[in-house]
Structure formats: structure tokens, C-alpha cells
Automatic annotation (TrEMBL):
InterPro entries: aa-tRNA-synt_IIb, aa-tRNA-synth_II, aa-tRNA-synth_II/BPL/LPL, Anticodon-bd, Anticodon-bd_dom_sf, Pro-tRNA-ligase_IIa, Pro-tRNA-synth_IIa_bac-type, Pro-tRNA-Synthase_IIa_type1
Molecular-function GO terms, alphabetical: proline-tRNA ligase activity
EC code: 6.1.1.15
Domain notes: Consists of three domains: the N-terminal catalytic domain, the editing domain and the C-terminal anticodon-binding domain.
Domain Aminoacyl-transfer RNA synthetases class-II family profile: 46-462
NCBIfam families, sorted: PRK09194.1, proS_fam_II
Protein name, UniProt field: Proline--tRNA ligase
Length: 572
RNA sequence: CGGGGUGUAGCUCAGCCUGGAAGAGCGCUGCGUUCGGGUCGCAGAGGCCACAGGUUCAAAUCCUGUCACCCCGACCA
């Protein structure tokens, strides 16, 4: 492929809006062009990478025994109402109306539609187990698209769904998907760690995310150096610092003028933050909830939501706080009525805490659960932090930032029951299928590949996803000897089944070398009068610093060998 | 939706405070030059200064509103 024909337009400087490395390189290398927030056009060069990623996914999914299907992106809204998720997805669901006023949604995911297809095709236990997948465009009206390709409003997802007769065989389907994912990420050159995760809006049981650890990530991951436990912060189990021991003392009202925050009150009264009781107000599915937690801890809203069995939890707005007569800055569960009081176990186990007096500028000392206040519900709803103890081995947990690349989880029978996916078992009894579901974000993977495979000069593609195997730079292409050598190089590469991008532009050598580094093909071949004098073409690998001059055929063979070795051993 | 920031040429940005003929570098087109790490010269094309309203003799510049985009939070692949 000649570079002139590929519409490769590199940028010397990245547009100001790009902050993430991957975003900057995507734009500078001319792989994508932004259209609107969360929407990108792919150029011929960028699309080749996307297709390579999809090829890897397809190969590994097929190898795992999954079957590729294709489902519409346009969904009748009734399907979403049937599952109950039309309301759950809220504004994230793009909605539209056809000419007959029938309502549709643009699919943000496909549990509903795959269930429809499954309900029409699965009849007997003899049809099971089966895993169906597709690589399809998803639409989500995200509140905040971000980071270039990290969070899009229209994106490509490989989504797979397994159907089993029971939980035991679901485990096998889940494990097969899990193994396929590990192969996919390894081949694509994205280092990932599997972490325990919350199953989120889709619901279900066991759930794991494949997370690419990077400072650019939007998720917080807790890792245990002792036993290898890894979990998303919203899911992570841990042991908070222990409470201070002591005998229950009589409650006492103290004047705390102008002291509102935990830090202020603790300092004023000469106690540690873990000797205080923090009050936080939420609305769970629009209903007010009073949350009590030890002062040194923060509320994990996902755990709170799960403890309440709520669909949605959001911080209470100031107006509602006032209307309910809650005293922000001096609130405690003492004497609170008319709303549930959810307490973290930390608040229940500690003794003699300092809490609000529910009147401005006053606090109470020596509050004790059971005596001074009573929780409606006690649960573990605190957010894990770096340094907290691992639940399994007691080691201090570490935190890292990460990007969720893929998610696998066990759905169970929820969708099967709502959407009518049943089979007849050996005894002729009608049973719901036990489902699992598995997703990978394709564009996000592209961004992660760049985050994980670049240097100061640009992208350094892993062989499997590189848009071309070799970048051929011609210097002095006007000279017949160079032009002839160029043809030899091209045919030698082609003879090995290698794809080459030939820089035939009429630019200076410096520009061509800079662009070759930026665009990042694994191998670079330079053809010039100088190289011909030395006996052939110069071969250099993007990740190496040495170069060698070889006859065209030998150079092509060396590229083929390097490629084969890299593919055999996994990407460098 | 809450908080912060930015909108001037394809890209990076000056100009705005203090109103008075729209600029630079890069990129693009043409000619020449150069030819192993973003050559050099000459000549060009390219802007409704985000949009709307207002103030003024006069608005990129001052005022009001709107929109878009980016960043931080709540959500997800």
C-alpha cells in the first residue's frame, strides 16, 4: 500500500483537547478524526487496527466454541420494558420513534435481543450449552464521554451470551469465556488483571473485570500484595482499622461552635476521626436514607445500593436536607425518624463516638449503637482505601487506577425468566436457561493498546494489531536504482505474506523517519542510494535500536522470522 | 446534572486588560532548492474571530444569553 493513497495525515502537534497519551497519539498518527463528543471517525489506517483487533477476538471466540451471530442495533422499546430495563437505563438509552409513532431504542447492550433470539431457537436441553456472540455497535448516551476512545457514546462491543441448563455447566461456559479473554488480551498486547467486580445495572452473581492498570484509568482497583486478591473499589472487601477499645460512657452534649466537618470536630474535641460518627444523606430510588458510618471511612455508594436493594442511589440535594430538618454538619442518627437508618458495621462496633446533636454548633460525646441510636439496617458499606487490611490475608491493600477492558459475569435465570428463554429437560420439565454474559470494548482496547505500547516517538504496535507489518521508507526514489530496489523489497515482503506501507511521499528523510516512528509499524525498511551502496536495504525494528543492511530478500525473511517469533511467543 | 476551563486559519497559539484595517509558526498549493532524523527560498490559497442579542460613531476586544468542546465527580466496554 502506497502511503499517498492511504490518506495518512499526521499531526506535528496534538489538538489541545487531547490529554491522554492514547488520545494524543490516535489524533497525531491520524487514526481517528473526532465528530462530536464521544463520536469518532476512523481513517483507513485506524480502521485496519480495529479490524485486526476484531480478527483476534473472532478467532479466540470461535476457538472457544462460541458461535457468531448478528443482532439489530435498533430495538423495539417493548423488549426493554419487558426486562424492566427501560426505566433502569434511564437517559443512557437513546430513544427514537418511527413514522408510525412506534418507539425504539438504539441498543446499549443486547441481553434483551439475544434472549429473544435464544427463546426462538433453544427448545431442549439437547440444544445446550451454547454461547452466542457478536461484534456490534452499541449506543449509550453517556453523561460524560471522555478520554478519546476510552468512553464513547457509539462504540463497538464484542458481546457474548452463554446459555446453560444449570449453574454447574454455566461455570464451564464462564471459564471458557474467561480463558478466551486472557488469550485475546495477550495477543493484542494489553496487560490485564482479572478483578472481582460489582455486576452493575445488568445484575447477576459472580462478576469479574479485566482491568488494564494505568494512571489514565477511571476506576480504582484494590490489590493485595500478600495473597493476590484484586477487586474493583466498589466491590473490594477489606477490614477497616479497628475501633479504639473502651467501656461505654454516658452521653454528653458539647458546644462545638462553627465545627462542621469530621476533621474540625475531631481536632476541636481532641479525638481521632475513627472516634467520630459520620452522617451522610442519600436518596435511594427517590426515598430519603440516613447513613451512619465511622468518621474515618467513606461511603461506598455501590455497596449501599446493593445493601438497600435499590436501583439508584444519589446524594441528597441540599433543599431536601433542609426540608427534612436534617442539620448538615451536626447530624447523627440519634432521634432520627421517618427514614431508614443504614449503618456501616464500623459505626455499630465502635464505642463512645462523637456525633452530631442534630442542632447547629452542638455535638454529642460517647454515642453507642443500641443505647443511643438504632440502625434499621447494618451492612458493610465502606469504601476500601490503600492501607486497609486484606480480608483474606491481612496484608495492607494497595490501590491502582485502571481501565475496564472486559467484563464477564454470571447472569443466572433473571433474563431467561423475564424474556422467556426456557428449555425442556430430560424429564420434560420446562426450565429457564442459566445465562452468562461477556463483553469487550473494541475501541477502548485500541486506546489501551496504544497506552501500553508507545514511547516518546510514537506508537509501537504489537505485530498482531499493527496496520501493516513493515514500513518501507524510500529515499531518493527518483533514482532508477532506488525505484528498482523498492520494487524488489515490496515483492520480497509480499512473498512472505507480509503487508507493507510504502512511504512514497516527496518529503525529506527526516519527515519520513519521524512519521514512521509515530505511526509505529513493527519493522522499518529503508531503501536509499546509501543503503544500496552498502548492499541492500536497511532493516530496523520499531522497538530496537540496532539496524542492519541486507539484500531485499534477506531483509524480508528477517521480518517474517521476527513476526513469527513474536506471534509464537505472544506480543513483546 | 454539580464544579472548573476553553472557543480567533486544517493544527498550536498571539491579539482582548486599555474598542479604531484579523496576525505568527506549522500544515496545504505552485516553482525552485535540498536529500539519512520534522531542509531552505520565493509566490499563493485559507478566517461570519462559536452563535444570538445589546452598548458604541466604531466590537475578536465591553455586557447579556445560548451552544459546542475539554477536564474533575455520579455511570459503563
Amino acid at each position: 500500500m502506497r502511503m499517498r493513497q492511504l490518506l495518512v495525515k499526521t499531526l506535528r502537534e496534538a489538538p489541545a483537547e487531547a490529554e491522554l497519551t492514547s488520545h494524543r497519539l490516535l489524533l497525531r498518527a491520524g487514526l481517528v478524526v473526532p465528530l462530536a463528543a464521544g463520536l469518532y471517525c476512523f481513517t483507513p489506517l485506524g480502521w485496519r487496527v480495529v479490524r485486526n483487533i476484531e480478527r483476534i477476538i473472532r478467532e479466540e471466540m470461535n476457538a472457544s466454541g462460541a458461535l457468531e451471530v448478528h443482532l439489530p442495533a435498533l430495538h423495539p422499546i417493548e423488549l426493554w420494558e419487558q426486562s424492566g430495563r427501560a426505566a433502569l437505563m434511564g437517559q443512557t438509552l437513546f430513544r427514537l420513534t418511527d413514522r408510525k409513532e412506534r418507539e425504539f431504542a438504539l441498543g446499549p447492550t443486547h441481553e434483551e435481543v439475544i434472549s429473544y433470539l435464544a427463546s426462538r431457537t433453544i427448545q431442549s436441553y439437547r440444544d445446550l450449552p451454547v454461547t452466542l456472540y457478536q461484534i456490534q455497535t452499541k449506543f449509550r448516551d453517556e453523561p460524560r464521554p471522555r478520554g478519546g476512545l476510552i468512553r464513547l457514546r457509539e462504540f463497538t462491543m464484542k458481546d457474548a451470551y452463554s446459555f446453560d441448563t444449570g449453574w454447574d455447566t454455566l461455570d464451564a461456559s464462564y471459564d471458557a469465556a474467561f480463558a478466551a479473554y486472557q488469550r485475546i488480551f495477550r495477543r493484542a498486547g494489553v496487560p490485564v488483571v482479572p478483578v472481582a467486580a460489582d455486576s452493575g445495572a445488568i445484575g447477576g452473581k459472580d462478576s469479574q473485570e479485566f482491568v488494564f492498570l494505568t494512571d489514565a484509568g477511571e476506576d480504582t482497583i484494590l490489590l493485595c500484595p500478600g495473597c493476590g486478591y484484586a477487586a474493583n473499589a466498589e466491590k473490594a472487601e477489606f477490614v477497616p482499622p479497628p475501633p479504639l477499645p473502651g467501656e461505654q460512657a454516658p452521653a454528653e452534649r458539647v458546644h462545638t461552635p462553627g465545627k462542621r466537618t469530621i476533621a474540625e470536630v475531631a481536632a476541636f474535641l481532641g479525638v481521632e476521626p475513627r472516634q467520630t460518627l459520620k452522617a451522610v444523606f442519600y436518596r435511594a430510588d427517590s426515598k430519603p436514607v440516613f447513613v451512619a458510618i465511622r468518621g474515618d471511612l467513606e461511603v461506598n455508594e455501590v455497596k449501599l445500593k446493593n445493601a438497600l436493594g435499590a436501583r439508584e442511589v444519589e446524594p441528597m440535594d441540599d433543599a431536601t436536607v433542609r426540608d427534612l430538618g436534617l442539620v448538615a454538619g451536626s447530624a447523627s442518627p440519634v432521634g432520627i425518624s421517618g427514614m431508614p437508618i443504614v449503618a456501616d458495621t464500623s459505626a455499630v462496633e465502635a464505642v463512645n463516638l462523637v456525633g452530631g446533636a442534630n442542632e447547629p454548633d452542638y455535638h454529642l460525646r460517647n454515642l453507642n449503637h443500641g443505647r443511643d441510636w438504632q440502625a434499621t439496617l447494618v451492612a458493610e458499606i465502606a469504601l476500601a482505601r490503600a492501607g486497609d487490611a486484606c480480608r483474606t490475608c491481612g496484608s495492607p491493600l494497595e490501590t491502582r487506577r485502571g481501565i475496564e477492558m472486559g467484563h464477564v459475569f454470571k447472569l443466572g435465570t433473571l433474563y431467561a425468566e423475564k424474556m422467556g428463554v426456557y428449555y425442556l429437560d430430560e424429564s420434560g420439565e420446562r426450565r429457564p436457561c442459566v445465562m452468562g454474559c461477556y463483553g469487550i470494548g473494541v475501541e477502548r482496547m485500541l486506546a489501551a493498546i496504544i497506552e501500553a505500547n508507545h514511547d516518546a516517538d510514537g506508537i509501537a504496535w504489537p505485530w498482531e494489531v499493527a496496520p501493516f507489518d513493515a514500513h518501507v521508507v524510500a529515499i531518493g526514489a527518483g533514482e532508477p536504482a532506488v525505484a528498482e530496489a523498492l520494487r524488489q523489497v515490496e515483492s520480497a515482503l509480499a512473498a512472505h505474506g507480509l503487508e507493507a506501507l510504502v512511504d512514497d511521499r516527496d518529503d525529506s528523510p527526516g519527515i519520513k523517519f519521524k512519521d514512521a516512528d509515530l505511526i509505529g509499524m513493527p519493522a522499518r525498511l529503508t531503501v536509499s542510494p546509501r543503503s544500496l551502496e552498502r548492499g541492500g536495504v536497511e532493516l530496523r525494528f520499531r522497538r530496537g535500536s540496532e539496524s542492519a543492511v541486507l539484500p531485499a530478500a534477506d531483509a524480508a525473511a528477517a521480518v517474517a522470522k521476527a513476526r513469527a517469533e513474536a506471534l509464537g511467543a505472544g506480543p513483546a
